[in-house]
Amino acid sequence: MNLPSALAYQNGVKRKVRTKKKKGTITANVVGTKYEIVRTVIGEMAFLKTRDEDETANFIWNDSAVQHEKIAELRNYQRINHFPGMGEICRKDCLARNMGKMIKNQPQEYNFSPKTWIFPAEYTQFQNYVKELRRKRKQKTFIVKPANGAMGHGISLIRNCEKLPAQDHFIVQEYLDKPFLMEGYKFDLRIYILVTSCDPLRIFLYNDGLVRMGTEKYHAPNESNLNQLYMHLTNYSVNKHNENFERDETADKGSKRSIGWFTEFLRTNDYDVAKFWGDVSELVVKTLIVAEPHVLHAYRMCRPGQPPGSDSVCFEVLGFDIILDRKLKPWLLEINRAPSFGTDQKIDYDVKKGVLLNALKLLNIRASDKKRNLAQQKAEAQRRLYGQGSMKKLSAGSSEWEKQRHTLERRKEELKERLVQVRKQISREEHEKRHLGNYRRIYPPDDKLLLEKYESLLSAAFETFLAGRAASLQKEMNNPLKRMKEEDILDLLEQCELDDEKLMGKSARQRGSKTLTSMPESAHVPRRQKDFSSSSSSCNNSSSSASENDDDDEQKDDFRQTKTVSYSLGESKHKSSERSSKYGVGGESLLNLRTKEEEAELTQQTLATLSEMRIRFPGRSEEEAEMILDEILDNWKYHKPKVASYWLVKLDSTKQRKVVDIVRTNLRSVLQRVWREPDVESLHLYRLFNRIFNRLLWSHGQGLWNCFSNSGSSWESSFGRSSEVVTVQELQCCRRVVQLCKDCLLVVYKFVQDSRGSLTGLIWSFGRYTPTVQCAEVWE
């Protein structure tokens, strides 16, 4: 028997017999569900159902939301199907309140939710809105819903708004009276969403779902049909009671159909299916971004000792109810954190079984998790007992050397923790790719530009909902390490070790970076390099001006001083393998479909474009901007302490990154245009640029400040330890990027100095190409 306990007879007497658990068995506690499909899926996954009172099961399912205390008591190897805090978008009143805040903050992005008022708090605002409609001689229909209702109970349509009670608790929403119709019937879509983690956020969309149709032909609402709920409501729990409800065993007929069939219907009728699913995916992600600050904060409160990035003990299958207007735009109706898994029809069974079965495979619940967790708890207890792994605190009388060493050790610990998180994430993603089934990941998306937009919205959501609270969470959100890849972190760890060797008085390695100090000792600053290419602004092989030739002579001298050579592949691989062995990571290989000659040509074009790029001072011409930069460098002794104070002291790490991101953002567009590659992350040159940006921001911006010294730049040392080959042209591109970052800092510094702290705009110029970037921030 599969059951842990069974009834048996011995000598005619009924007695209870316990069956032993096999080693390596995944256990499941599903006493909290009424749905047979959940038990069926558990059986197919070969999970062993436990006794009702067993609280140690690997997998726990409850149909309703669970108390925060329950989540706090879970062991790290357990999984439960609800997140704390998800009610912030699953209760109708909470969803309306939180969406309202994001609509005020990001009106262009959050335009998929109908206007909603929460009674009684917003009764006055609603009546004012109705009066304004009456003044314009417009009349709209509104739908009234209970604040925490479900299954269509208590829903009604109204047009005479004066009759609404002012003190009752419910929500009022504008009724979408021009829906997309199917065979003359109104319908909605039940989209199934799996959230596997909130730390970090990971969202998956199931590629099938349910199309739920009304059972009366739709007509626009008027006084005579407002009470015909079979026409206006699409809830299955409402329409199943109508005699016109059609039950059918196929996915393309009846009052309930599959989304797979609906997708094929759109394709057959020449609708843009890709855009439709893109819009649906964005709606889902943006809605869950609204929930993320609440969910993450509540989750951290329940699991205070759990390190960021560790396996989540929670997951959730959500049911998004979406309606389409006649232009096929999706509108969010509501979100169900306990969607029905009833299987009244075959289509229910097929769709819902796939939702659950594929979700459990994605979760990667292993029998070994319990044993591994117990071993980790034991090791952690021993570390606490013997004081291992804890950093010593600095005393009040600590020397400057001790403070530097302590800072370096703390930095190394932070990098190692992040490295562990990144490696876990890589392992998790590899498992997901193999076990997606009929799911697809919609957050984080593969599209880098879309990811940047989502991250911006996520940052706005944290500022909106956690303003003045959870400061550590907001600080963590802005941590530059969150955006770094494994190779970048390994670079920084190696830099830490080099700095540690110097502090300890050991001999520096041949390619070691210079010591980080508060300010470069040299008061002299080399003249800015004007061009690194003999190309003209049109990227053709035309002759350069005399002044450019003079600059080229200076650059050749610079190249000789820094020994600009193409590092050999054998030497780089040897150094990379040493580092990989040291930190326990294998090397990466980059698939390159271009020939070496094509890459060299494209790199030359990139270099020519970079040479044309200039920082334009807001409100000034290019010539005036050049004069301002020259004036700063000519009077460097005067400006040096002011620039150092502004960059190293006044700007925090977030604002420093924003300065550098001005260059980074424009580099992305340059590479996309020149290389005709939308995903620039895969380009070797972009990887080099990324490494430079990380090095420039090293030690709170000390890396960029060191570039103002003529004693060498530490960013070049990272190439000697990399498995990537760096050509002369690529190194020239990198140097030009560093120069642009220096110019950008000086322009920002000068603009803030002139405008007393308010930076209203920075504009780039690309020669004959003229894309621009606006940056509105207070940088002081």
TrEMBL record:
Gene3D superfamilies on file: ATP-grasp fold, B domain (3.30.470.20)
List all Basic and acidic residues biased stretches. 571-581
Coiled-coil portions: 360-432
- State the superkingdom: Eukaryota
Q: Where is this region: Disordered?
A: 503-585
Q: One biological process GO term for this chain? A: microtubule cytoskeleton organization
Q: Where is the composition biased (Low complexity)?
A: 532-547
Q: Which GO terms describe its molecular function?
A: ATP binding; tubulin binding; tubulin-glutamic acid ligase activity
Any idea which UniProt keywords this protein has? Answer: ATP-binding, Coiled coil, Ligase, Microtubule, Nucleotide-binding
Family annotation (Pfam families): TTL (PF03133)
Would you tell me the Gene Ontology cellular component terms?
Answer: ciliary basal body; microtubule
* Protein family per UniProt: Belongs to the tubulin--tyrosine ligase family.
Q: Could you identify this protein by its name?
A: Tubulin polyglutamylase TTLL7
Species: Denticeps clupeoides
